[in-house]
Specification:
The protein has 95 residues and is an alpha+beta fold. 25% of the residues lie in helices and 44% in strands.
């Protein structure tokens, strides 16, 4: 995966009526790694890593598309940075 250009990492939190399990499927389809978790306050939080253009595609999905029947009020991205290697081998759901 690292031969596709510079690697990027970003943390996210999605507000609205959202479900993290769809995020895992989309991440695997796009080809990014990281994790997602449904929070006790009804948001979805996590981290995405991968080639810059794939992370940007995932950011777009997280802020504009989401899961079927989701309603995204807003998405906050933080700690966006270039990384030298991936910290995860896949995309997983945390509990």
């Amino acid at each position: 995966m690292s031969d596709a250009g510079p690697l990027k990492s970003v943390d996210y939190e999605v507000f609205g009526r959202v479900q993290g399990r769809y995020t895992e499927g989309e991440a695997k389809k796009i080809g990014v790694v990281g994790w997602v978790k449904n929070t006790s306050t009804g948001t979805v939080t996590g981290q995405v890593q991968g080639p810059e253009e794939k992370v940007d595609s995932m950011k777009s999905w997280l802020s504009k598309v989401g899961s079927p029947s989701s309603r995204i009020d807003r998405t906050n991205f933080s700690n966006e940075k270039a990384i030298s290697k991936l910290e995860y081998s896949n995309f997983s759901i945390r509990y």
